[in-house]
Amino acid sequence: MSIQGVSGGNNFISGIKQNLKAQVAKLPITIETPDGFVDSFIKSTGGMEGWHQRGVLGLAAIATQPFIDLNNKNVDEETRKYSAIKTGVKILIGTGMGVLTRYLFGTALTKWPSFIAQSEKAFIKIPKEFNMDQAEDFKKGVSTFVGCIGTVISTFLIDKPLTNPVINASLKFFNVAEKPKQGAKK
């Protein structure tokens, strides 16, 4: 692929957007939104930190996915319950640890004055030639990077070892068989 092909990516994306708009316009329903609603919503979420975003995604997941599992008519009731509990526990643990690690490693750590600053004593030094805006952007980038590292570490040290015992305890609490029959139909 040539450099020219890469720069043509905007035309490709614009084409997809136009095609999508044309397909949505053909639908027999209409969705009315106030002018600028979508743009203002996107801008309002831009100020959210990583841990806020993870919390919102987790809330959406816990509000929908277990109920989808419970209403899956392609499997028997015992499998539906098992699947809903397993999904719910994984979402709760993943969201809880995701929010906590993003907050601790990303937000709180980068606000600690000696962790990242424009001083010689800082653990991560912001280049002195950066103005205030550049320094803030640098801090946000470091916050995201450190938050990602913390999340990966916590996934293997906390999420994975914690998930199965909590699933098993939840199955016992709700009196659901630990391993439903494979491929069981209603």
- Number of strand segments: 2
Main β-sheet, spatial strand arrangement:
1-2
Instruction: Please state the average pLDDT score.
Output: 80
Largest sheet: 2 strands, parallel
Alpha-carbon Rg, integer: 23 Å
Which percent bin holds the helix content? Answer: 55-70%
How large a portion of the residues is in β-strands, by DSSP E?
under 5%
Tally of individual helices: 6
Overall form: flat
Structural class: mainly alpha
Summarize the helix and strand pattern as letters: HHHHHEEH
**Could you list the spans in which at least 5 consecutive residues all have pLDDT below 50?**
1-9
How far apart are the first and last residues' alpha carbons, in Å?
A: 51 Å
